[in-house]
Design brief:
The complex is a heterodimer of chains A (372) and B (211). Chain A folds into two domains: 297 residues, TIM Barrel (Alpha-Beta Barrel), CATH 3.20.20.210; 51 residues. Chain A is α/β, with parallel strands linked by helices. Chain B has 211 residues and is of the alpha/beta class. Chain B folds into two domains: 79 residues, Methyltransferase, Methionine Synthase (B12-binding Domains), Chain A, domain 1 (Orthogonal Bundle), CATH 1.10.1240.10; 120 residues, Cobalamin-binding domain (Rossmann fold, 3-Layer(aba) Sandwich), CATH 3.40.50. In chain B, helix 5 links the parallel strand 1 and strand 2. In chain B, helix 1 packs antiparallel against helix 2, helix 2 runs parallel beside helix 4 and helix 5 crosses helix 9. Classes of the chains: A alpha/beta (372), B alpha/beta (211). Chains A and B meet through strand 7, helix 7 and helix 9 of A and helix 4 of B.
Chain lengths: 372, 211
């Protein structure tokens, strides 16, 4: 009997050989945008994301959800919504910090950006540490099970105990990259103390998330070698090694959503212990070809991705799209430890029918081992 | 003539406090603000730009260097306002609508300031019409558009088209940049130039204004 999408994806993630290339497609950016603007293609009006991907014949990577959330105790959390803007205040016994986010529908309903970060100045360190020391992990297994049932054997729910690693949360969510590097230069002890608090919270969240039956845990996302390389070895690798040891001891796999420029990070990836590099985005959207990704990440890491988002856009013809995919198969020969996917999403002006084209190309050229 | 190589090194190392000290030292020694900028800051930024382009430096290095240069320029600003330093050109820069990313744009803005340009930074998530209005009002030599998302990049082409429709295109050079932007894309949408990073932006912008 033929393997299901789910079986093929999981087997490949574990390093097992399968019959043909798995395809785990991600279209939530495209879907969220068109759903919000009422512009889904006529034939897909009122369809769910999962059903659209099923119709295209693709495996499903169902993302945009956290299996473990944070509940803040011993403080008041006040949320004020003003149109697309949400201001959240954390009023603690030792002071108040706040952040402002905007839900930007230019990308669909999924994407929230922090317009004002929690950290504004050095006086915020003790308050922010308090906020996250008093954060209690709370599971949302019910939603996970619902999503898992919805996807069934056609794919996976993509989530993890902690979407970003502790240091990435400080860098991106709490401070913003610019302020992070200024603070790391001016007040390294304070920054590292905050990172330790976030690590403790992440450990507590993982200890809860591991009680689910999630097979692959996404443990970090959104690296770019021009930002992360200088701090990767000191702040990222040890944390990933610890997390991967924990997950592996429970028979689970670790995944990172690596959709940025990875050229100078790839040589360090193997040290992390992460099993799956997802949302791999090659040339022309980054500087690294798929052949180079395979060489640099080695045969012990499953690569998930390979089709840059821009390939789905109208500036590329169908013929150019097909040629890219066929060339990618040649570059990735013999093709094991490789799950075809988007780097990292179907863009809002992408052609949904090209998802089906990938399925056809895999059926024609994607049987394993691939010819080089 | 005071040796400004130490000032250049503080910019190269991204040492803000040392940059301010060396700037004050140079002023005390009677060096003109213009020479401090040209022989100290621009030399330092040039070194930083080369190291970034070669891959030796990363964005954090650029951020710290830009911060050091900004701090030095703050010391010089009151003196420059009095003497009025001629600028190479006027630049309007911003991140396009729907895009909340601005690190790269901020670095480019600082590099261009240090490189002798007068920079008007419109910030991030800038509506297309705001760019058009700014071009009409300030008559810049260069309009710099930044985008970090493939979903927001199309705004660059729309802005260029609107500049044409409103008869403003001929008077301004458009340079585009940002992670998903490429030289090919720049040509596709009718931009005049593309810069990969802050280091590249200065020579490209200087070329655009004929320097």
């Amino acid at each position: 009997m033929a393997m299901t999408h789910r079986e093929r994806i999981l087997a490949t993630a574990r390093g097992e050989k399968t019959d043909k290339l798995p395809f785990g497609a991600r279209i939530d950016l495209w879907y969220g945008y068109h759903k919000a603007h009422g512009t889904l293609p006529e034939k897909y009006r009122d369809w769910s994301l999962v059903d659209i991907l099923r119709d295209q014949g693709a495996g499903i990577l169902y993302r945009g959800y956290a299996i473990v959330k944070e509940k803040f105790t011993d403080m008041e959390v006040i949320e004020k919504i003003d149109g697309p803007y949400t201001t959240t205040e954390y009023r603690t016994p030792i002071g108040t910090v706040s952040k402002k986010e905007v839900l930007d529908t230019s990308e669909g309903v999924l994407v929230k950006y922090e317009m004002e970060k929690l950290f504004k100045s050095a006086k915020d360190y003790p308050i922010i540490r308090y906020v996250y020391e008093h954060a209690v992990p709370v599971d949302d297994f019910a939603t996970y099970h619902r999503m898992k049932a919805e996807v069934g054997e056609d794919g996976l729910v993509g989530t993890g105990g902690t979407f970003w690693s502790p240091v990435q949360r400080v860098m991106r969510e709490i401070m913003g990259y610019e302020v992070f590097f200024y603070e790391l230069a001016d007040r390294p002890a304070e920054v590292e103390s905050l990172i330790e608090v976030m690590k403790d919270l992440s450990r507590r969240k993982l200890e809860l998330a591991i009680k689910s039956d999630l097979e692959i845990f996404n443990i970090c996302a959104n690296w770019s070698d021009d930002i992360h390389t200088p701090v990767f070895r000191k702040y990222f690798i040890p944390w990933f090694q610890e997390t991967c040891d924990f997950l592996h001891s429970h028979g689970r796999l670790a995944m990172a959503h690596v959709d940025g420029e990875m050229k100078r990070l790839n040589p360090m990836f193997k040290e992390t212990g992460i099993d799956v590099a997802e949302a791999i985005t090659p040339f022309p959207q980054t500087k690294v070809t798929m052949k180079e990704f395979r060489e640099q990440l080695g045969d012990g890491v499953t690569i998930w991705g390979g089709i840059p988002s821009i390939l789905f856009e109208p500036q590329y013809t169908d013929a150019q799209f097909d040629d890219f995919i066929k060339n990618m198969f040649r570059e990735m020969a013999p093709g094991y430890r490789f799950i075809v996917g988007m780097g990292d999403n179907l863009p809002f002006d992408g052609d949904i029918e090209r998802v089906g084209r990938v399925v056809e190309l895999i059926d024609r050229y994607g049987r394993l081992p691939l010819a080089g | 003539m005071a040796d400004l190589s130490e000032l250049a090194k503080t910019i190269e190392k991204g040492d803000r406090d040392a940059a301010v000290k060396e700037t004050e030292k140079a002023l005390d020694a009677g060096v003109s603000p213009e020479q401090i900028i040209i022989k100290g800051l621009q030399v330092g930024m040039g070194m930083v730009g080369e190291k970034f382009s070669s891959g030796e430096y990363f964005l954090p290095d650029m951020l710290l260097a830009a911060r050091a240069m900004k701090a030095s320029l703050e010391v010089l600003k009151p003196l420059l306002t009095r003497t009025g330093m001629p600028t190479i050109g006027r630049v309007i820069i911003g991140t396009v609508e729907g895009d909340m990313h601005d690190i790269g744009k901020n670095i480019v803005a600082t590099f261009l300031s240090g490189g002798g340009f007068e920079v008007f930074d419109l910030g991030l998530n800038v509506p297309n019409q705001k760019f058009i209005d700014a071009v009409r009002e300030k008559k810049p030599h260069i309009l710099g558009l930044s985008a970090l998302l493939t979903t927001t990049m199309p705004n660059m082409g729309r802005i260029i088209k609107t500049l044409e429709e409103e008869g403003l295109r001929a008077g301004v050079k458009v340079i585009v940049g940002g992670a998903p932007v490429t030289a090919h894309y720049a040509r596709l949408i009718g931009a005049d130039a593309y810069a990969r990073d802050g280091g590249e932006a200065i020579p490209v912008c200087k070329k655009l204004v004929g320097k």
